[in-house]
From TrEMBL:
The lineage of its organism: Eukaryota, Metazoa, Chordata, Craniata, Vertebrata. This is ALG1 chitobiosyldiphosphodolichol beta-mannosyltransferase. Keywords: Endoplasmic reticulum, Glycosyltransferase, Membrane, Transferase, Transmembrane, Transmembrane helix. Its main location: endoplasmic reticulum. It comes from Oncorhynchus tshawytscha (Chinook salmon). It is found in: Endoplasmic reticulum membrane. Pathway: Protein modification; protein glycosylation.
Length: 463
């Protein structure tokens, strides 16, 4: 019905433009029909029932499962008797309390991409337009909400779309300010980039049009007031009931699982025949199966990150360096195991390697593969390129063992990078791959001949 009404409005407007050249009476009729249809559309969009004031939409244009504060908002509203429509990107599984709550309905929306051809700005603009249309349709299809609570950032295009929907439907518009979106964009584009300046203007303009504003800290509240004249209420994060101390038994089970792949969680000094389950932090007595935390265990430091550009992770890394300096100076401090959780990719983990300066093949390659779960030849070779350590002897066998890929093609990638096509290196390929056929060895020589001819032709051209 709504789509039909919108279509009739469009038809009436087009007819009005056409008929203006014919007769003023037809123009008046067209305008009147359009006004009636618009009025009917607004009445339909604003149609309320007895439950409207107990309905709230929580919106985040990001991964719902990685938006804990918005999940807490949804749970809190539900506990106070509100029906919650939770809109956001699917991906990470939300907390079980959110999934199992009968008052919370999750509406997933797809993260759309713009045109993948042409300049980057074209891709960005088309993405914003498509995402705006999708979000607009999703919000208009839901029942009329008393409030729409959205997270910012990301606020492009969700702020303007939410403001428009609230205006059409008579809902109150609340922004939960976590940060400024334009400052995050400035990290990659620079503060003076036209897109960043446009984003700042957009965020400031439509941010002022909200009915209410929330923020995480008083510092953010003061900044909003002083710079943009936006009044906000500080709403601190408060851990919900789902956060509680983990039992020693569950800790031990976790440590045992991690010890299978991460050496730092393993107990050093196991004796043959010892049936006690041990980790670096805990042990289980085989006589009564009781679990205790071991004395002299390392301190376990956990830090989460989403590896976004606005997170200065070097602060933690510098603190770890200072900690190590205190220990070397004689301070009596426990050993430290630092666990960094988050959405890992090979690129993000290698950033840590570069920052710490610890990126030898032995110390990094296996850990990167284990953490990221990416054992492909390409991912391992990224480590080799960054470390500058990619001789055949030091890398080839490790690549094959870690990736489980002993094919000639995979090993030849190492040969191409190392530039080592000698007979000795070819024989290593044969030994590792178990492929001694003439065809497999000739592949190596064909690659070598091609490279030699290329170099020779460049030398002739330079003359």
């Amino acid at each position: 019905m709504t789509l039909a009404t919108i279509s009739l409005i469009g038809f009436a407007l087009l007819a009005g433009f056409y008929l203006t050249t014919l007769n003023a009476l037809w123009t008046l009729i067209s305008v009147t029909v359009t006004a009636v249809l618009v009025s009917q559309l607004l009445q339909k969009l604003r149609r309320r029932d007895a439950l409207t004031e107990r309905r709230v939409c929580v919106l985040v244009l990001g991964d719902i499962g990685r938006s804990p504060r918005m999940q807490y908002h949804a749970l809190s509203l539900s506990k106070h008797g509100y029906s919650v429509t939770f809109v956001g990107f699917p991906g990470t599984k939300p907390h079980q309390d959110v999934i199992g709550d009968e008052r919370i309905t999750i509406i997933p929306i797809t993260e759309l991409k713009g045109l993948q051809v042409g300049p980057r700005v074209v891709s960005y603009v088309t993405k914003v337009i498509l995402q705006s249309l999708q979000l607009l349709l999703v919000l208009l299809k839901t029942d009329v909400q008393s409030h729409i609570l959205m997270q910012n950032p990301p606020g492009l295009p969700s702020i303007v779309v939410t403001w428009l929907v609230c205006g059409l439907r008579g809902s109150r518009f609340i922004i939960d300010w976590h940060n400024y979106g334009y400052t995050i964009m400035a990290l990659s584009h620079g503060p003076d980039h036209p897109i960043v300046r446009l984003a700042q203007w957009y965020e400031q303009l439509f941010g002022r049009l909200s009915s209410h504003n929330l923020c995480v800290t008083n510092a953010m509240k003061e900044d909003l007031q002083n710079n943009w004249n936006i009044r906000a209420t500080t709403l601190y994060d408060k851990p919900p009931a789902i956060f509680k101390e983990t039992s020693v038994d569950l800790k031990h089970q976790l440590f045992m699982r991690l010890a299978k792949t991460i050496p730092q969680f393993r107990f050093c000094g196991e004796r043959p025949g010892d049936e006690t389950e041990r980790t670096a932090f805990s042990c289980r007595d085989p006589s009564d199966f009781s679990v205790t935390l071991t004395s002299g265990r390392p301190a376990l430091l956990i830090s989460s990150t989403s590896w976004t550009e606005d997170e200065d992770f070097s602060i933690l890394l510098k603190a770890l360096e200072d900690y190590e300096g205190f220990v070397e100076a004689g301070a009596s401090l426990p050993s430290l195991v630092c666990v960094i959780t988050g959405n890992y990719s090979v690129d993000s983990v290698l950033q840590v390697c570069v920052i710490t300066g610890n990126y030898s093949v032995d110390s990094v390659m296996l850990q990167v593969c284990v953490i990221t779960g990416n054992y492909s030849v390409d991912s391992v070779l990224q480590v080799c390129v960054i470390t500058g350590n990619y001789s055949v002897d030091s890398v080839m066998l490790q690549v094959c063992v870690i990736t489980g890929n002993y094919s000639v093609d995979s090993v030849l990638q190492v040969c191409v990078i190392t530039g080592n096509y000698s007979v000795d290196s070819v024989l290593q390929v044969c030994v590792i791959t178990g492929n001694y056929s003439v065809d497999s060895v000739l592949q190596v020589f064909m690659v070598q001949v091609t490279i030699v001819l290329t170099v020779y032709s460049r030398a002739l051209w330079s003359r």
